[in-house]
Specification:
Oligomer: single chain
CATH superfamily of the largest domain: Ribonuclease Z/Hydroxyacylglutathione hydrolase-like
Organism: Mesonia oceanica
Radius of gyration: 24 Å
Shape: globular
EC number: 3.1.2.6
Keywords: Hydrolase
Protein name: Hydroxyacylglutathione hydrolase GloC
Strand order of the largest sheet: 1-2-3-4-5-6
CATH class of the largest domain: Alpha Beta
Length: 471
C-alpha cells in the first residue's frame, strides 16, 4: 500500500499521504499546503479527503487551505464540532480513496473527538493505522489538553477514555499493522516518545509501557499522569484556531513578506508595539543585535519556543533573519498560529550595522573559563534547562530556573550581582540572555556549549556552594 510519511523535524510532526488510482488523501497536514499539492501533482492525483485525527494543539492544521485549493472534503471523527463545513465521521465509517479504504475508528482519550484511521489496501488487507495523538511509538497522547478548552474534561476522565480506546479499539487489531503516529521524540504532546516514527503494532504491545496486557485502568491513569509537565501556553490557542478557522496562509505570508530598510524597520518598531524577533544562531546573535530584540534561532525548536515565550498569539512581530531565511521564519511562525509578522529587516543585521544603527552584545564564555570562575566560587549559576534535565544531572549548587518560567522569576535574580546562565548546549541560554538583556540585566555571562561542554572540564560539582542570595 502506498503510504508516505511527510515528517517535519522542528515540530516532530508527521503528516501522511496516500494515493491510489488517481485519488489521494492527506492526514493531519501542516499550515503550508504547497508540499501536499506538489506531492499529489507528481502522481497526477486529485486530493479527495483531508482527514484530521483531532483538533490539534501544537500546530495549526492546513485542512482549510487544502479544502479551498482542491475542493477536498475535510473529515473529523465523531463528536467534532468545527465552525466550518466538514464531514463528521461515524465510528467504523469507511471512506474510499481509489481502491483503498480508510476506516474511521473513534478513539477518544487525548481529546474526545480523537479518531484513528485504519488503512485497508486494494486487496482488502489491513495495512496500517494512522493514530494521531492516541498512540505514539513508545508512548500515548497526553490527556490533559482538552480541559484547557472544556473545563469538565479532566485529565483523569480523558485518561480513562484513552485506556478504553487502546484496549478495545487498537490492541485487538493485527500485530503486523504498521502504526503511523502524528508525532515523534521532541513533541510536547507526550513524554516518552521514541525517535522512531513508525513501528508494528505487535512490537508496541511488547515495548510500550501503556500497552501492557495486565495493566488495570487505575494503573494506566496513574502512570500516564505521573511526571506530566504543564503543556506549552500556546496549545489552547491553536486548538481554538483549528476549531474556529483562520486566515489563509497565503494572506498571512503576503503581509509578513514586507522587506524593510533599516530606517523603515526602526520607524515601524518605534511606532508599533511590535516585538523584534531575531532568528539567527546564538553565536551570531551574541556578537551584535538590535537592542531589545529577542533571540529564538531557526536552528533549534524555533516555533515551539515562540509559542511558549510569546504569550500573546496576536503579538505583532518584526523579524531579523539571515539572508534568505525570512520566508522560513514566517512559515514556522504561522504553523503555530503567530500570524502577525509585519515585516523583516532587508539585508539582515549587516544592513543595520552599515546604516550606523545602535547594536548591543552579550558576553559568552568557554567551559574552561567557566571552570575558573566556578572554582573561585564568586557568582551565582543559573541553569535554564527543564526540571527533568536538571534533576537528572546538574552542576551542584546551581539554581534551576527553566527557560519557560524565567519571566516569572526575574525578581529572584538581582541585577547588581554577577551570575552565569547556561542550558544544555547554548540555544536556550541565549534565548534567556536576550530576555534578560531586554529586562535591563547586564552583569551576566552565558556559557558557550552549555552543560555538555561543562561536563568535559574538571569542574568538581560537589565542591560548589551557591551564593546565598538566591537560596
Amino acid at each position: 500500500m502506498k503510504v508516505e510519511q511527510i515528517y517535519t523535524g522542528c515540530l516532530a510532526h508527521a503528516a501522511y499521504y496516500i494515493e491510489n488510482n488517481g485519488e489521494a488523501a492527506i492526514f493531519d497536514p501542516l499550515r503550508e499546503v504547497e508540499p501536499y499539492l506538489n506531492r499529489a501533482n507528481k502522481d497526477n492525483a486529485k486530493i479527495k479527503y483531508v482527514f484530521e485525527t483531532h483538533f490539534h494543539a501544537d500546530f495549526v492544521s492546513g485542512h482549510l487551505d487544502l479544502q479551498k485549493k482542491t475542493g477536498a472534503q475535510i473529515v473529523f471523527g465523531p463528536g467534532a464540532q468545527p465552525n466550518y463545513e466538514a464531514t463528521i465521521a461515524k465510528d467504523n465509517q469507511i471512506f474510499n480513496v481509489g481502491n483503498y479504504q480508510v476506516k474511521a475508528l473513534h478513539t477518544p482519550g487525548h481529546t474526545m473527538e480523537s479518531t484513528s484511521y485504519l488503512l485497508i489496501d486494494e486487496n482488502g488487507k489491513e495495512h496500517g493505522i494512522i493514530t494521531g495523538d492516541t498512540l505514539f511509538i513508545g508512548d500515548v497522547g497526553r490527556p490533559d489538553l482538552a480541559q484547557h478548552v472544556v473545563s469538565e474534561l479532566t485529565e483523569e476522565k480523558l485518561a480513562g477514555h484513552l485506556y478504553d480506546s487502546l484496549r478495545y479499539k487498537i490492541m485487538p487489531l493485527s500485530d503486523d499493522l504498521i502504526v503511523y503516529p502524528n508525532h515523534g521524540a521532541g513533541s510536547a504532546c507526550g513524554k516518552k516518545m521514541s525517535k522512531e516514527t513508525t513501528d508494528t503494532l505487535g512490537n508496541q504491545k511488547k515495548t510500550n509501557y501503556a500497552l501492557r496486557a495486565d495493566m488495570t485502568k487505575e494503573e494506566f491513569i496513574k502512570e500516564l499522569l505521573d511526571g506530566l509537565t504543564a503543556p506549552p501556553g500556546y496549545f489552547p490557542k491553536n486548538v481554538l484556531m483549528n476549531i474556529q478557522g483562520y486566515e489563509s496562509f497565503d494572506e498571512v505570508k503576503h503581509k509578513a513578506e514586507n522587506p524593510l530598510s533599516p530606517d523603515q524597520f526602526e520607524a515601524l518598531a518605534n511606532a508599533s508595539q511590535a516585538l523584534i524577533l531575531d532568528t539567527r544562531n546564538a553565536t551570531d546573535f551574541s556578537k551584535g543585535f538590535i537592542p531589545n530584540s529577542i533571540n529564538i534561532g531557526l536552528d533549534g525548536n524555533y516555533a515551539p519556543w515562540v509559542g511558549e515565550l510569546i504569550k500573546d498569539i496576536n503579538q505583532e512581530i518584526l523579524l531579523v533573519t539571515d539572508e534568505g531565511k525570512a520566508e522560513e521564519a514566517i512559515t514556522r511562525l504561522a504553523r503555530v498560529g503567530y500570524d502577525h509578522a509585519i515585516g523583516y529587516l532587508k539585508g539582515g543585521i549587516n544592513s543595520w550595522i552599515s546604516a550606523g544603527k545602535e547594536t548591543d552584545t552579550t558576553e559568552r564564555i568557554s567551559a574552561k573559563e567557566f571552570e575558573t570562575i566556578f572554582h573561585e566560587k564568586t557568582v551565582t549559576l543559573i541553569d535554564v534547562r527543564k526540571k527533568s534535565e536538571y534533576d537528572s544531572e546538574h552542576v551542584e549548587g546551581s539554581i534551576n530556573i527553566p527557560l519557560n518560567t524565567l519571566n516569572e522569576h526575574l525578581a529572584e535574580i538581582p541585577k547588581e550581582q554577577p551570575f552565569i546562565v547556561f542550558c544544555a548546549g547554548g540555544y536556550r541560554s541565549m534565548i534567556a540572555s536576550s530576555m534578560l538583556k531586554k529586562r535591563g540585566y547586564d552583569n551576566f555571562k552565558d556559557v558557550l556549549g552549555g552543560f555538555k561542554a561543562i561536563k568535559e572540564t574538571d569542574v568538581k560539582t560537589s565542591d560548589y556552594v551557591c551564593p546565598s542570595t538566591l537560596l
